[in-house]
Amino acid sequence: MSKLSPTQVAKSAQNAHERIKDRIIHTPLFPSRQNPDFLFFKADNFQRTGSFKIRGAMNKLSKAMANGEGTSTRFITASSGNHGIGAATAAVDLGADLTVVLPENVAPLKLERIKAIGANVVVAGAEAGASEMEAQKLADSEGYVYISPYNDPDIIAGQGTIGVELLDDFGGGQIDNIFISLGGGGLVSGIASVLKIANSKTKVWGVSAKNSAALDASIKAGRVVETEHLPTVADAVAGGIDETTVTLPLACETVDHLLQCTEEEIEACMGELAFDEGMVVEGSAALALAGYHQVASTIEGETSVVLLCGGNISREQVQQILSKEE
Q1: How distant, in Å, are the alpha carbons of 25, 48, 175, 186 from that of 259?
Q2: How far apart (Å, rounded) are the C-alpha atoms in residues 194 and 213?
């Protein structure tokens, strides 16, 4: 797969926006109740599947179907949950045959949602990276067309539609900082490319959970690095990345700063978003806010956006985490 440039991604994201805008929600931009003049939340937790992942999946499958890969084609993908929900929803919308490979530690809520949507489900691999390898093996051995949850130009362009929406939301106004949780890199690569091409002065902050920070380590090393993956409440961004991923060069070029957050910081921000901002989100969304808080005093007076990437969380997990913050 050839290297992508931010300019290419930004153009593809504009095209993706036109392609999928009628099948997704232009999610709201909320000013923070605590800091309404300078802090804003881009709330993709209110996306139709509860996370941003439907953007990339809808763009990928829409293009594939339009290019003649019709109902006779079997697609397969891997997911820690949210991409599977988004991809399954896109497949049902478009009439595509999709199998989703999920890790053994997938959140039960997300597993049941994917099954309920109607996708075929395979549970294999201890964590998301292992599930990706299993899905790739099945694609090779059984004739599926593999869809990476992040290592695909069409997926990246779909996630980049958040950046397109943000430019519209701000009406040409300055975005000084944006805080984005890091997983496989499709989200940060897409959004950062769009925003950087529009205004190179926008600073992109990539935020990782300390318990699973493969992309963080890889950006620092300039190559794909294997890291230990411990359990994290930010399960949607956990796991490793492909050796050949196109997201790493893009992230190296467009991410200005890297931050890592503890489980305690993430959980505290889940409580803050619920009690102070009126939004229940999953750990991967609260992770971005935790990163913002680490540096808030150094960017005081600047306009900052925290991307809330998802809100798919079980009642039990909400009760468990929020009870700690009461």
Answers
A1: 29, 29, 19, 18
A2: 24
Would the pTM count as exceeding 0.85? yes
Residues contacting 138, CB < 8 A, separation 6+: 76, 99, 101, 122, 144
- The whole-angstrom separation of Cα 109 and Cα 81 is 9
The pLDDT score that the predictor gives to residue 74 is 92
pLDDT digits (tens, 9 = 90+) for 259-313: 999 999 999 999 999 999 999 999 999 999 999 999 999 999 999 999 999 999 9
For residue 180 the two structure tokens come to 């984005």
Q: Fold identical between 6-52+153-323 and 54-147?
A: yes
CATH number of 54-147: 3.40.50.1100
Where do the domains of the chain lie?
Answer: 6-52+153-323, 54-147
Name residue, tokens 């305690």.
264
Distance set, CA 95 to CA 46, 83, 149 (Å): 24, 17, 19
User: Could you report the per-residue pLDDT of 251-271, keeping only the tens digit for each?
Assistant: 999 999 999 999 999 999 999
CATH of domain 6-52+153-323: 3.40.50.1100
